[in-house]
Amino acid sequence: MTALRSAAQGLRTFASDIAEGFFEITHNSFALVGLAVVFAVVTLTARPDLRQAGEEQLVSWLQARKAAVLGMEPELEAVDRATATNPKDLPREQAAVAYWLSKKYRVAPEPLSALVVEAYEVGQRARLDPTLILAIMAVESSFNPFAQSAVGAQGLMQVMTHIHSDKYENFGGKLAAFDPVTNLRVGVKVLQECIARAGSVEGGLKLYVGAGNNEGDGGYAGKVMGEHARLAQVAKGRAVPTSPPANATIVPTVGSMKQPSGEEKVAAYVGL
Questions:
Q1: DSSP one-letter string for 110-168
Q2: Which pLDDT score, from 0 to 100, does residue 251 have?
Q3: What confidence score (pLDDT) does residue 213 get?
Q4: Contact at 8 Å (CB) between 132 and 142?
Q5: What mean pLDDT do residues 133-157 have?
Q6: pLDDT tens string 99-123
Q7: Residue 252 and residue 219 in contact, taking contact as beta carbons nearer than 8 Å
Q8: DSSP per residue over 49-86, as a string?
Q9: Going from the N-terminus, what domains does the chain have, and what CATH number goes with each?
Q10: Using CA atoms, how far apart are residues 82 and 226, in angstroms rounded to an integer?
């Protein structure tokens, strides 16, 4: 019995020694970890360059992991290239116009919001009603920034790029015609010059569409002014349907008339 008790006592002592040693090692390890953390914090505080390098390394690692999971490289700056704005961030008037156009032309409200903001800003500088600018875009391209006509008019405002290539020089060249904001700005400049030459908005629209040498414009000015009037009502908070009533009279458009030839288009823009 005495031998068994001695053996049990020995085992208890051995287990106690092991537990005490484990606690001591763990305690010391935590202390070392704590000291390492404190040292790292002090070092990074004193050396911002090391902190930045560490952050960049961590971000790079996280991006690499994300690319491996998604199967494509991340490109965080891509959002900066998008012509889009949250319509909820717009003033009430501009938001109403953006949502109405989005519904009517089946275009996402975010890119339309960016165009509405730009039209208001450019219109103020050019002393043109922004809803007139938006109406021209609606009639010319239905807000398709990549539209091109048979005679070479391109982009949202259907500007004759090869005629007005000089206006694109400040934007890097003629390919900027397919950048929505650039096309809008150049189109407004062309419109300004057309109105100045004609002496009226309606006359300017006739020049703008390239019908300067024709007796009429095939209803183009009427269509633009009609859309302009609707947008002006929307901007004032009025409820305006996005589609005409069933018994509405169809106004002939440029598409229903004989289209001006390339030479006629050029002649209409000479001197701009």
A1: HHHHHHHHHHHHHHHHHT--HHHHHHHHHHHHTT-TT-B-TT-EETTTTEETTTSGGGG
A2: 39
A3: 81
A4: no
A5: 96
A6: 999 999 999 999 999 999 999 999 9
A7: yes
A8: HHHHHHHHHHHHHHHHHHHHHHTS---TTHHHH-----
A9: 2-74 (no CATH), 87-269 (1.10.530)
A10: 30
